[in-house]
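A reminder before we start the practical. When you read a complex entry, don't treat the lines as separate problems. The point of joint prediction is that each chain is placed relative to the others, so the output describes one connected object in space. Small molecules and nucleic acid strands, if listed, are placed in the same frame. In the example below there are two entries. Take a minute to note the order of the lines before looking further.
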Amino acid sequence: QLQLQESGPGLVKPSETLSLTCTVSGDSISSTSQYWAWIRQPPGKGLEWIGSIYYSGSTYYNVSLKSRVTISGDTPKNQFSLKLSSVTAADTAVYYCARQSDYGGNPSGWFDPWGQGTLVTVSS
Amino acid sequence: SYELTQTPSVSVSPGQTASITCSGDKLGDKYACWYQQKPGQSPVLVIYEDFKRPSGIPERFSGSNSGNTATLTISGTQPMDEADYYCQASDSSPYVVFGGGTKLTVL
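Here is the predicted structure of the whole assembly.
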């Protein structure tokens, strides 16, 4: 059974870099035709896609965050990671990782399953 | 940029049919999917590719997508279906767009 688990600091200071890791079990992040994604949800608000990494290592980002986001994969550890630089209070959110289906060669498919999520608060 | 619009809240009586809509320009030309999110939990995929149900999702959940509107229908709504529901559109650009969410109340 595929499971994803987010980990990382729950508190980050403004202007610093948020770093999270998603550990995958039950599947390999190098399996063909799959994406691995990060999505976030500010408290009481809706979902926002951050970006995805393809099994080949190609990355795709939300244009609104692209200048601050880096997603990378670690195949031996079966993990993928998120780095978000220059954070502000607006980046306070629950961060989810998820497997994303490949749709037409684009990272535009559905997300299933999702990790349990981890709350990251940006505050001094 | 592409936007998806959802009614903020929908109320339904137990046993009745709930319809939750998601509107976007030519949404019917794209694939739509739906997620259910209960308080304090992660989203769960309930419909993908407009109308397909993942394994384990009850048959009372169904979907359709035509024109500018995708619809999630819950037949015989149960109290356990009370949750937030989010739609998502799939397209070549932008890759992923979520609707703002609809809070379904079963009362």
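Discuss with your neighbour: Strands of chain B lie at 5-6, 9-12, 18-23, 31-37, 44-47, 61-66, 69-74, 83-90, 96-98, 102-106. What might explain this?
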